[in-house]
Amino acid sequence: MNETETDASRILFINSADTQINSLDKSKTTDYTFIPEEGIVIPRHHAILLSLHHTQIPYSFYNFQNNRNNKIDFVLTAAGVTGSFGILPANKYSISLPEANYNAASLLNKIKELLEAHPNWGGGTINIRFNRDTLKYEWNYRGVGGAARLTFLIASGDNALINCRNEIGFNDNKWINGDATQDIWFEDAGVGVGQRAGSSDANNNQSVLFTSATANQDEYWNGDEGLLNRFSVVDVLSSIRSLYIRTNLTTSSVLDSSVGGGFSSILARVPIDVRSGGIITISPSDGSVHKLLLKIKEISKIDVRLTDQKNRVIDLNGLDWDLSLQFDFIEVKELKVPKDKRLEIEEKKYQAWKTKTEKSK
């Protein structure tokens, strides 16, 4: 069994300002390499217990970031004309949300503003309401001219992997009929809100929220409330719930479900428990609770990355951050396998015979 042999831990303090930034963008202080002047060498009969001792991270990153979750692809078509699957029509457009930390109200206002300000919008009206009881967005589209159907390409668009479908309520875990591969359309032609399911609209003229093309806005939102569960909860923090500190030292110590339960480079998960603009802190009182056993015998460089749960590097907008690593050295005891009793007796007989033979020579 392993026994701790050192009375005191060794602490290594690292500030990102003192490191080599790995990104071409030198403002990305969350992906770096630190090379100590003297490497750490561990004797063969020792091992290291590594833990995150302390960290301070400025909450300067945005929950909506470029090329992460700030796109919405949309299509405007005539009534009954699909805007998804197969060859997309020419009137396919997109909006990009500015990087920011939105709440549920400011997000819906920004989406409405960007859609209606788009040069190809054509004069229609999109209304979005946040229902505080169900925590869902409720949608209404009023088209003009030949644009009677608005389709959000949340599954089949060019930006399907970097849109904000989860944040605005079209969560890929909970979608109409449990199918996360489908887009959503809103039609101002008496059909209501429906879902594109396959190659024909004939099978899915489902009334989800709004069923009257002539009713006023209040009547639109007083429809069949029992169907509200077809939209999932709005989650403006879907993209970043926790921060993860990853290193090249921990590639054989932590199991991660996102890689099929295999080993990952995670050193520690850092919960976000402060408001934007604050400092996310893990202090010595709670930083060294979880210790990782390292198999390496020499440390000549330390690679560090600060990421989200999908292993994408966080952008602190140029601000530096610091962490400290705690090293505890332990002695690895050699385990002796007990010998079989009969084998031990035979070995004694052999040694006695060997000794007697040597003396008779």
Structure description:
12% of the residues lie in helices and 30% in strands. It is mainly β and 361 residues long. The strands form six sheets. Strands 1, 2, 6, 18, 19 and 22 form a six-stranded antiparallel β-sheet that branches. The chain is elongated and about 115 Å long.
Structural class based on helices, strands and sheet pairing: mainly beta
Helix content: 10-25%
Profile the largest sheet: 6 strands, antiparallel
Number of domains: 2
Q: Could you report the average pLDDT, rounded to the nearest whole number?
A: 78
Number of helices: 4
Through-space gap between termini: 47 Å
H-E string: EEEEEEEEHEEEEEHEEEEEHEEEEH
Per DSSP E runs of 2 or more residues, the count of β-strands stands at 22
Rg calculated over all Cα atoms: 30 Å
Give the low-confidence spans.
Answer: 190-230
Beta-strand level of the residues, as a percent range?
25-35%
Shape: elongated
Question: Which key features would you list for this structure?
Answer:
361 residues; mainly beta; six-stranded antiparallel β-sheet
